[in-house]
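Lab notebook, bench 4. The sequencing result for the construct came back, and we need a structural model before the next group meeting so we can plan mutations. Quick request posted to the team channel:

Model the 3D structure of this chain.
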Amino acid sequence: MDILLRLLVAIGFALLLTAVAALVLHLVFRALGRRERWALALSRRTKHPTRSTLLVALLWTAFTTSVPNDLDRFPWRDDVSHVFLIVMIGVGCWLACELAIFLESLGLHRYRVDVPDNRVARRVRTQVLIIRRLTVAVLVIIAVGAILLTFPGVEAAGASVLASAGLLSVIAGLAAQSMLGNVFAGMQLAFSGSIRVDDVVVVEAQWGRIEEITLTYVVVHLWDDRRFVLPSTYFTSTPFENWTRTSSELLGAVEFDLDWRVSPSDMREELDRILATSTIWDGRTKVLQVTDAVGGFVRVRILVTAPDAGGLFDLRCYVREEMVEWVQRHHPDALPLQRVQLTEPTRTPPTKRSARNESDSQLFGEGDERSALFTGPIQTSGIHADEVPPDPRAR
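Done. Here's the predicted structure in token form:
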């Protein structure tokens, strides 16, 4: 009973110390947060893992100080201490991961992505996100390894595993070839700069933005709010379009097929008026050209620029709509027409029929020709009256 009472008192004292320490840390970070914004961010990020680490450490200390190291009387003491050690490694890894994420987020705070020209910020953000995932993965692997090493006999098992590491590495490499290829492709994407977070790309005839880049896959946020998930190796082995590779500013075209009676000079004046009232146009380029004039139509192309892909799409729609209304109101004769020319056919004089013989209209007028169709030509010879033989009955 004395040991149990002493253990309960030690646990209560540990809980009290944890509450006091958490309160002191909260007050300190709140005071620092009035002058430094990073202090409040650090407090919010590490509040729960810090309190958990303090609680586990103080409870472990209270247990080891209140329970004597007597295996005969307390054979469960080492098992409980082992559990405390495993939990301590786990919460320590949690705290280390949160600190690493905070430091990386603090570095990202200097690079804003909500500005027009954010190419450098997007590149840094992409690299930091990959480094963050690698850091968390390494810390978790170290924590798992440390936990495994606390069990007796793991070192001997590790030696036997290392003895057959050659064969296992070959088998694992063949089995995980696809996964490792995606991992290396993800690292290549992060540090090569071919794509970055928030880049505007066209993949598989789909337009969207790079929403997330991981070590194994890339998420593309399409224009209709769908997500297109592609393996990292897709962007290292398949051609794709990156509209914001060097800058976020883009140039787009609006085309019209109009009648030959359209006035390009009047359209240029109207384009100047439309762009002057637009808040999306960045003022870099405005061009109106007649690019084709065949097939009964005149093709007019308008080139405009915008600070980003979304603004360019809205600007093209706005210019197209205003131009259509202007043509309908002021130049209806320029609307596309399909011309058809009708011609009168020439009159030909009636053909005269050749006169037929009277014998042709008789019933057997063409008897020889008709019989020749079935029997072939038969040669006939005429018989005169003086050549008729005498009748033998006349004798």
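The chain has a mean pLDDT of 77.
Will bring this to the meeting.
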